[in-house]
Batch of 2 targets.
Target 1
Amino acid sequence: MGNLIKVLTRDIDHNAAHFFLDFENAQPTESEKEIYNQVNVVLKDAEGILEDLQSYRGAGHEIREAIQHPADEKLQEKAWGAVVPLVGKLKTFYEFSQRLEAALRGLLGALTSTPYSPTQHLEREQALAKQFAEILHFTLRFDELKMTNPAIQNDFSYYRRTLSRMRINNVPAEGENEVNNELANRMSLFYAEATPMLKTLSDATTKFVSENKNLPIENTTDCLSTMASVCRVMLETPEYRSRFTNEETVSFCLRVMVGVIILYDHVHPVGAFAKTSKIDMKGCIKVLKDQPPNSVEGLLNALRYTTKHLNDETTSKQIKSMLQ
């Protein structure tokens, strides 16, 4: 048994070194190009989405003024005028989540196909593996920003309340062309989630597994657990960690590790926290706890609140207490 673990660890170490040290420069091979180009079109817009979300200030002041002075038409118009363009932004973010979901499904199809093992896929298709990691990195960053911005839900609630009042009073509403009722319902569900992008990806991964019944579920879960192991080994091994050229690479690895754990926990029948899990959860949590606390609180919260099996009876007391 000891030898087997040594072999497994050695393989993951080798894979980690191979995978992450070449990662930044990974170029698609001919067979990867079609999927790579499709995903690249989506990822090109990711940074702009994050910048827009980061600078999202909301219309809290205008909304408060309008609510406090319901008879003042000018203040009602001012609040509506402030909220409509913001809802346009929220619509863009939501539509991007749908594009991201389609990109993820394309990557999962490529990275789990037979006859290759997850490790072989990660080594053969590094450019696609890198894109998969970039999607997870974006997702965790998006959700961290959304979690700390209550204006998003306040603005959208005000928009919906005002719109239904306008409908009752037969007042034409310019903003309605922007977001119709059906889309507004879907957006409401999306923004009601604490971590909407992660929820979108978890659902997409679960759906991918259920729609591809001819593909063993292990092809997907092993791909995710291998990526988690790679990230953990990179972060806890000084020899590899010392080769990271900047701290951004560390936070990239941390976010990807947490992202794949959450996806694994949603897709695997018994989840990431059970003894039989292929993810070393204690090791992963320790890596997170070894970072400066303020830099990882959002990631620890993601494990606490967006996983599916943490509170199961099969989760050891030690893991539960590590995440308390």
Note: The first helix runs from residue 2 to 21.
Target 2
Amino acid sequence: RELENDSSSEIILDILKQTCLHPLCCKHPPSVRYRRLFLSQLIKRHEASESEPLDELYDALGEVLGVEEGTECYKNYLLPCGEAVSLSESTAVISEGTTGLVTWEAALYLAEWALENTHVFTGRTVLELGSGVGLTGIAVCRSCSPSRYVFSDCHLSVLNRLRDNVQLNGLDNQNSPRVRVSVKHLDWDEVTEKHLREIGATTVIAADVVYDPDIIGCLVKLLSKILRCSANGSPPEVYISSTIRNPDTYNCFKHQLGQY
């Protein structure tokens, strides 16, 4: 029984070291609320094993209980290559008049798909629409070897946070000579075919941009412009990752695509 308890304590302590006490988490801490919930659950699991109390667990919880939640936090993601992506995000789903300051589920799926299909991006000029805080694009730049990557959004606060995250992950052009990275303001209504040709994208991606019926017409018109702006005689490949919250909205998107 004592051996089982010792083993349980070692496992819990290892989990703690791999998460809340990990150097990456200490440098770029997740939200206070998340850490409190995580540590509380870890303590419950440890207490259920009837093992001796772990001072490290209660010290970690005590430390986070004394911290006030701010308006910003970090989320960290480990890439298959062993490197990490760290993102500064808002602790609120809606802040500064936008939902673009947090990572949404479709961006996670698109990033995972990109890591499994690196050939779609290798050596390409990639344009990302609605980049948000930058998870997908940073993952692509770090793991898929594009020649050029253009992050884009239209909300000022999102663009500022996006630039900060690009720099945080070492993707400014001085630190990342293998891929040319830029962050651009791109208004879907106002962007011209001339501007799109200057970008010269051979691959276009977007995540979670099909969520509001009011912007679907604008998005479809933009995609039509993009497909007319061929690079090297061929139209760019376009990949869109969506979370289907409302089937009617998604069907509206597919219907309008079929009209072009």
Note: Residues 2-18 form the longest helix (17 residues).
